[in-house]
Amino acid sequence: MPDLIDDIRAQLATLQEQRLLRQRRTVDGPQGPLLKLDGKQYLAFCSNDYLGLANHPALIAAAHAALDTYGVGASASALISGHSSAVEELETELAAFVGMPRALHFSTGYMANMGIIPALVGAGDTVFSDRLNHACLIDGARLSGAEFRIYPHNDVARLEQLLAKNTSPRKLIATDGVFSMDGDIAPLPQLLALCEKYDAWLLVDDAHGFGVLGPQGRGSLAHFGLSSPRILYMGTLGKAAGVYGAFVAGDATLIEWLLQTARSYIFTTASPPLLAGALLATLKLLQTEDWRQQHLRQLIARLRAGLANLPWRLLPSETPVQALVVEDNQLALTLMEGLRARGIWVPAIRPPTVPKGTARLRISLSAAHSAEQIDQLINALQELSVLNY
Ligand code: PMP
Questions:
Q1: CB distance 239 to ligand 1 below 6 Å
Q2: Burial of 26 per CB tally in 10 Å (0-12, 13-18, 19+)
Q3: Which positions are annotated as binding pyridoxal 5'-phosphate (predicted)?
């Protein structure tokens, strides 16, 4: 036993030497553009609360009301006695919102993908996965036992070559709708066309598109005006929706199959119903107010214009995820520190979260930011860019 601990201590020390050890910071108080981290206040560009709803009074009031009605815990898994009427209503509303026949609620996006993929494919089948897909699509595919084929990022031609020579009975193309570290949008119309041509399913993980893209934030499918029984749409509820959780929407029979067989749905305690209460308030806000998405678009354009002449590569992105690729791990950390010294928090993202040689600052914008706050970030980065690191 001590050998094992010594081994792990050495591994941790190596991570420390490589400056790859991850650090947690404590947040005091609610989420928002001004964030108190480890006791100090920063102007923050690090959250996925893209619409600024995580601390919205309507969501808080709805959570309070649901808390009074349902109590704190769900007490059992959904198939035993934990499926609250608030979650039932949420599933119905979510399905209607994204224009799909039926939806199933999961505790988190991670758990959703870990449940959906093994429920649909297994040994002998194939999952085709974009190289930049989120870890939970990769982990779900691995867990399924299906063959796992990675295609280069958004490379539809290469994917077609892989599909053309594949003879699996079931084929599933899995993609992020909006890529979490690059911010670009998947070529969903082309991917769906390939699904039709090669008789495959399309699983879209829209963690970063739900609430942001498409009319009223209905997501990346709505952004392209797509609908098909071949599509399973996974949206998460802890980012733009401001709360926590996830759902998958699609053909009613497929959703019934997931309810019956997705292990991360069946074998876990249902989420606290108060979360569903808050999420119903989110859906109401999304359908009655779309100024947040418009304001966000203006902030994105302002930031991109302000960063256009920096010596680093700002990846193409029309979403609130804006990646400034500086390539070198140490430079990414130095810039993060430089911003921090100026009271601004932007996370540096390094391998293995992103491919080697693409270390970056991941700037995430929120409708809760003001134009002045965007200018503050632009000015700080301009200042740092002439320091010749
Ligand atoms: N998919 C993507 C693309 C994500 O970025 C994330 C979260 N970072 C998830 C899924 C997981 O969602 P959750 O946080 O609800 O587990």
A1: no
A2: exposed
A3: 109-110, 180, 208, 236
Given the residues 223, 239, 295, 369, the one annotated as active site: 239
The ipTM value here is: 0.99
The answer to whether 219 and 188 have CB atoms below 8 angstroms apart is no
Active-site residue 180, yes or no? yes
109 lines ligand 1 (CB under 6 A): yes
Q: Are 134 and 205 in contact (CB under 8 A)?
A: yes
Domain ranges of the chain: 24-55+290-385, 57-288
Assigned CATH for 57-288: 3.40.640.10
Tell me, yes or no, if 208 is annotated catalytic: yes
Fold of 24-55+290-385: Aspartate Aminotransferase, domain 1 (3.90.1150)
- Ligand 1 near 97 CB (within 6 A): no
Reply yes or no on whether 239 is catalytic: yes
